C-alpha cells in the first residue's frame, strides 16, 4: 500500500498551498481532488466572478459618467466569448497548479478520498480504488452552495452560483435569493449586462456580516442603480414554473423573473469521506470540529471552508500554512485565528479588516468611530462615485478595525490591515506620507482628520 | 500697518496647509494668493488631470476588453460638459479651502506679495497696495510650466499644460514635447478621446525620473496603444504654422500635428517677489535655496515646489506642516527630507516609493531586486492588463524601495510606503494576510515569492 507522510484531501486553495509547502520541505505528499484542482475559489468562486466583474467594469465606469451627462455610449458583451475567456483563464491557472505540484513530486489523484482509519484512506479514481496510508492528513474539502427545502436549485430556471457561472444567455431579469457576497457580486455582474435585479434577503439588511452602515450605504447605492431589494423577507418557495422562476415570500408576496439564483450561503463537503473512521466530529451546522491547533483528530488537520471558521480563500491558505508548519515542527503553537480581511467586489465594493465596533463594544472595550465620505475624495469624485464611506474603529487610542463601502475600496484592505496588525501608533501614522491624490487619502481622512465619536452615542 | 505672526505667500497645497495648521494653533495668519486658491495642484495640476482621466477611464477599460473580443461598443464624450464638470469640482474645492481658512480667521488677500524687508512685504491687490509686517513668513509660490527658447507655448497651436486643461475641441493629433508625468497623463487622456499621440522626449526613455524598467514597460504599452514615441530626440523648434503645430528635431526630422503641448518641466515662481529684500538666494535653476530646516532666511521658510526639492503636492504639504511646527516650537528639528511616494496616472500607471536600485548601489549598498509580473495577478488579468510589473528593491534584508507599472498600481503606493517606513521585518511580512484576490497580491508576490537578484547582475 502506498504510504505518504501527508495525505491532503481537497485541491482548493488550502490543499494546493499545503501540498506545495509540505512537498517543498521534503515531505512525501499525496493530494486527492475529486473534481478540479483550484477548488471553489479558482473554478466557481473568487476568480471567475472577478473575471466577469473585471471584464464588465467599463459599463460601471461608463454609467457613472453618463449619469453626469459627460458622455454617451453603449457596450454590448459577447457572453459566449466572455465565458470562454473566463474558462481559459481558469484552466490556465489550474494547469499551473497541476504543473507546480507535479514538479514538486506531489502524487496527484483525481478521485474522492475517504478515511478508512486514523492513518488510512481509500481514493476512488476512474482507474479503481487506491488505498493510501499516511502519517498526517489535511482535510480541505471545502464547501458547496447551500440549499434549503423548497429553495433548491433545479438546474432549469433556478440556479446555484456554480451553474450561473456557466450562463449562456443574459436573462432579462433575475431573482437573487440571498444578499451576501455571492449574490451581490453576481448581481452586479448581471446588472452590468442589462439584467433587472430583484434581491431577497431574510435579514433586515444586505451583506449582514458587514458593518450596518456599510449595509445601509450598499442598499442606497444599489437601489439607485435600479435594484429591487426586499429585506427582512423569507422565501418559502422557489421553483421553475413554465419558463420563469417563481418565488413566494412568507408574507404572500409572489416574485417572478426569467431566472433565479440561490445564494443562501455554503455548506461543508463532509459527506462520504469517512469522518467516523478517522474519529472526526462535526458541529451542529455540519462543519468539521477542530481544536485550537486546527486538528480534527490526532492525525488529521481540517483547514479552510470545511471547518467553517472563516470562509475566505486567503483564510484557507493561511490555515494550510500553519498546519504544514505544525506537521513539520516537533512542537506546535496554537493557530492564532487572526481576524481575516474580506472584500466584496463590484461597482460598490466593500472591505473590512480587524474588529467591528459591535464586537469590541460587546467585549466591554471603549470604542470610538471616525469616518470619511468617499464623495470627498478627489479620485472617487473623478470616477463619478457619490456613495460610500471609510469607517475606522478605535479601541481606546488603538486602531482596531477599518471597513469601507464604495468605488475601489477593496484596494484599501491590505494597507488598513498592515496599520492594524503592526499596531501603528499615532506618531507613525503622522509620519506616513499619503500621496496626493489617491484613494488612500480617504483612509487618511478617516484616520487622521475626522472627529471620533464614542460608539453607541448618536 | 497690519502685523501678523505669519505671512504666507502662495495659496497652493503648501500655503493652504500652513495657513490652516498655523491658524488652528492660534497664530495670526495672512495669506496672499495672486491667482487662485489651491494653486497648481487644484486648478491646473493633479486634480483636473485626475478628473479628466477618471471620467474617461471607461474608454480604457472598454478597449482592454475589446482587444480580447469580449465586447463591442463606443463611448463619445461631450468635451464641453467634461470641462464644466472639472471646473465645477475644482471650484467647489477652492470654495471649501476659502471657507475653511476664513473660518479659522486667516486674512486672505487676492494679490501678489513681495518682500520689502526681512519682516515686511507689500501685497498688491485690486483695491491697492497693502503693506504687511510679519514675524515669520512661508514662501510657497510654487512653479509654472517651463519654456525654452524656440519651444514656447504661443497659445495658438502650441499650448502649455495650463492651456490644454481648458481645451474646447478634441484635436485629431497632438505632439507632446516631454515624456514626464504631465505629458504622459495628458497624453493618456487625449488618447482616450481619440487623439493620435506623438511624443518626443530628449532623454533616452519615457518617465526619465522613474526606474528604467518602468520606463521600458511604459514605452511598450503606449506603443501598443498606438502612440508614436521619439526618444533621445531634442526639439529645436516648435511653433504654430498656419493651422498646425510644427516641430523640428535636432536630426532634421519634422513632426506635425493639430496641436502641440510643451511639457518640459516646471520653473519656480520667484520673479517680482522681492527675494533680495528678504535676503533669499536662488540656486542655479532659479529655485529658492533652503537650509536643512526649510529656511530660506532667518525669517522665511520656503516650502513646496518653489524650493525644487520634491515637486509633489503631498511633499509641499508635508514641508508646510514641518515649517509651521518649527515656527510654533521653541527649538526645531531639521526637516528629514523623506523619500516621497509618487504616482503617474492613466491606463498604465506608475508608482514608486523609497529608494531606487541605482541610488542604493551608488551609495555602496548591497542591492538586490525581486519582481512580479502584473499579468500573473488575477485582478489585473480580469481587467485585461497584460503589461506591467511590481519591483522591490532590497538593501541587504531590508525592503528599501518599491516601484510598479501597470493597471491601477497607484493603489499600491501607500501600502508599499508603510512597509518601507515601518521597516517591516520578514516575520511581520509573513504575518500580513493578503486578501485573495487583490492587486495587493502582486506586491506580495514580488515581496515574498520571487527570487532576489543581485542588482547589476543579469
UniProtKB/TrEMBL annotation, chains A, B:
FAD binds at residue 50. Residues 340-445 form the Pyridine nucleotide-disulphide oxidoreductase dimerisation domain. Keywords: Disulfide bond, FAD, Flavoprotein, NAD, Nucleotide-binding, Oxidoreductase, Redox-active center. Binds 1 FAD per subunit. GO terms for biological process: 2-oxoglutarate metabolic process. Residues 5-320 form the FAD/NAD(P)-binding domain. This is Putative FAD-dependent pyridine nucleotide-disulfide oxidoreductase. It comes from Megalodesulfovibrio gigas (strain ATCC 19364 / DSM 1382 / NCIMB 9332 / VKM B-1759) (Desulfovibrio gigas).
Amino acid at each position: 500500500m502506498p504510504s505518504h507522510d501527508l495525505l491532503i484531501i481537497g485541491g482548493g486553495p488550502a490543499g494546493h498551498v499545503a501540498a506545495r509547502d509540505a512537498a517543498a520541505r521534503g515531505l512525501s505528499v499525496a493530494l486527492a481532488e475529486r473534481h478540479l484542482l483550484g477548488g471553489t475559489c479558482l473554478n466557481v468562486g473568487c476568480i471567475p466572478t472577478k473575471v466577469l466583474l473585471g471584464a464588465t467594469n467599463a459599463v460601471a465606469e461608463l454609467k457613472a459618467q453618463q449619469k453626469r451627462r459627460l458622455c454617451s455610449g453603449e457596450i454590448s458583451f459577447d457572453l459566449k466569448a466572455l465565458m470562454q475567456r473566463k474558462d481559459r483563464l481558469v484552466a490556465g491557472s489550474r494547469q499551473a497548479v497541476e504543473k507546480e505540484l507535479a514538479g514538486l513530486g506531489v502524487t496527484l489523484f483525481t478521485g474522492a478520498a475517504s478515511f478508512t482509519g486514523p492513518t488510512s484512506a481509500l481514493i476512488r479514481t476512474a482507474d479503481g480504488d487506491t488505498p493510501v496510508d499516511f502519517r498526517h492528513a489535511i482535510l480541505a474539502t471545502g464547501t458547496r452552495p447551500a440549499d434549503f427545502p423548497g429553495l433548491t436549485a433545479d438546474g432549469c430556471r433556478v440556479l446555484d452560483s456554480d451553474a450561473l457561472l456557466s450562463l449562456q444567455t443574459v436573462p432579462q431579469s433575475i431573482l437573487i435569493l440571498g444578499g451576501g457576497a455571492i449574490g451581490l457580486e453576481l448581481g452586479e455582474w448581471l446588472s452590468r449586462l442589462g439584467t433587472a435585479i430583484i434581491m431577497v434577503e431574510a435579514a433586515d439588511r444586505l451583506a449582514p456580516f458587514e458593518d450596518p452602515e456599510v449595509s445601509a450605504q450598499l442598499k442606497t447605492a444599489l437601489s439607485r442603480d435600479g435594484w429591487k431589494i426586499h429585506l427582512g423577507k423569507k422565501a418559502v418557495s422557489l421553483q421553475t414554473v413554465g419558463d420563469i422562476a417563481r418565488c413566494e415570500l412568507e408574507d404572500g408576496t409572489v416574485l417572478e423573473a426569467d431566472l433565479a439564483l440561490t445564494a443562501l450561503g455554503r455548506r461543508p463537503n463532509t459527506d462520504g469521506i469517512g469522518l467516523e473512521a478517522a474519529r472526526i466530529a462535526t458541529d451542529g451546522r455540519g462543519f468539521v470540529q477542530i481544536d485550537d491547533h486546527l486538528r480534527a483528530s490526532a492525525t488529521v488537520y481540517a483547514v479552510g471552508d470545511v471547518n467553517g471558521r472563516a470562509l475566505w480563500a486567503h483564510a484557507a491558505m493561511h490555515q494550510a500554512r500553519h498546519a504544514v508548519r505544525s506537521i513539520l515542527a516537533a512542537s506546535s503553537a496554537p493557530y492564532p485565528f487572526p481576524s481575516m480581511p474580506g472584500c466584496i467586489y463590484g461597482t460598490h465594493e466593500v472591505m473590512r479588516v480587524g474588529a467591528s465596533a459591535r464586537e469590541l463594544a460587546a467585549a466591554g472595550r471603549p470604542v470610538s468611530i471616525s469616518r470619511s465620505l468617499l464623495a470627498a475624495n478627489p479620485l472617487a469624485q473623478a470616477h463619478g462615485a457619490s456613495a460610500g464611506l471609510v469607517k475606522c474603529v478605535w479601541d481606546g487610542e488603538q486602531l482596531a478595525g477599518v471597513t469601507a463601502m464604495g468605488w475601489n475600496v477593496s484596494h484599501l484592505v491590505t494597507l488598513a490591515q498592515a496599520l492594524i496588525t503592526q499596531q501603528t501608533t499615532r506618531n507613525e501614522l503622522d509620519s506616513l506620507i499619503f500621496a496626493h491624490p489617491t484613494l488612500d487619502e480617504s483612509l487618511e481622512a478617516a484616520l487622521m482628520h475626522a472627529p471620533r465619536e464614542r460608539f453607541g452615542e448618536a
